[in-house]
Amino acid sequence: MATRKSAILFGATGLIGGHLLQELLNCPAYAAVTIVVRRDTGVRHAKLSQLFADHRSLDNIREQLRGDHIFCCVGTTKKKTPDLDEYYRIDHDYPVAAAQYTKDNGASAFLLVSAVGANPASSNFYLRMKGKTERDIIRLGFEQTHVFRPSLLTGDRREKRGMESLGRAIFKVINSLLINGLSKYKAIPAAWVSKALCRVAITGEQGVHTYHWADIKKRI
């Protein structure tokens, strides 16, 4: 019987992270699941533990960040974080620090939720930031690095994002028109992404891999 793994999840209270937490808790491949959150989530499970930190205080728990597979679904928005320096600290510095600390503590796999179009050379702030985050985590040299690049996410959020609601209505119409190379821009259910994250992690495929809409759909 294969040895059961331990997982650490950053971003467990977000749209993808909430689904992913349930996937990990229900997955028999994982014996223990740790989430890093700012406050008690109220979720209780025999194999779940919580560590309390954010992008400002992660260094305080760095020695406790020990797990086999690390999942990072961290992200804010310009509306919530209009200060671009702070935005960068949350969406770039925090995931990279999480990757560095867990790699130092022996983690073998890092799974990152990024964004379609991420490119460190992009003229767009958001896509450039996401691209730099991917680049800097890949450079750490995990045995497995899996980068997921969804487009617009669908699903029920705790917080309401007006532009996303409009975007979902539009994408519902045009999704069928996005074929071949354009399929990566299709709106995608957050639940699909979470299922694919869990399944990809337990396959143990070595190296660096990137997943867009079609790649994610194949793994649900």
Gist?
The chain has 220 residues and is an alpha/beta fold. The chain has 6 helices and 9 strands; from the N terminus they run βαβββαβαββαβαβα. The strands form 2 sheets. It has a 7-stranded parallel β-sheet with strand order 3-2-1-4-5-6-9, sandwiched between helices.
Structure description:
The structure is a single chain. With 220 residues, the protein is an alpha/beta fold. The protein has a single domain, classed as Rossmann fold (3-Layer(aba) Sandwich), CATH 3.40.50.720. Helices cover 36% and strands 19% of the residues. The strands form two sheets. The protein has a seven-stranded parallel β-sheet with strand order 3-2-1-4-5-6-9, with helices on both faces. It has a two-stranded parallel ribbon with strand order 7-8. Strand 1 (5-10), helix 1 (15-26) and strand 2 (30-37) form a beta-alpha-beta unit.
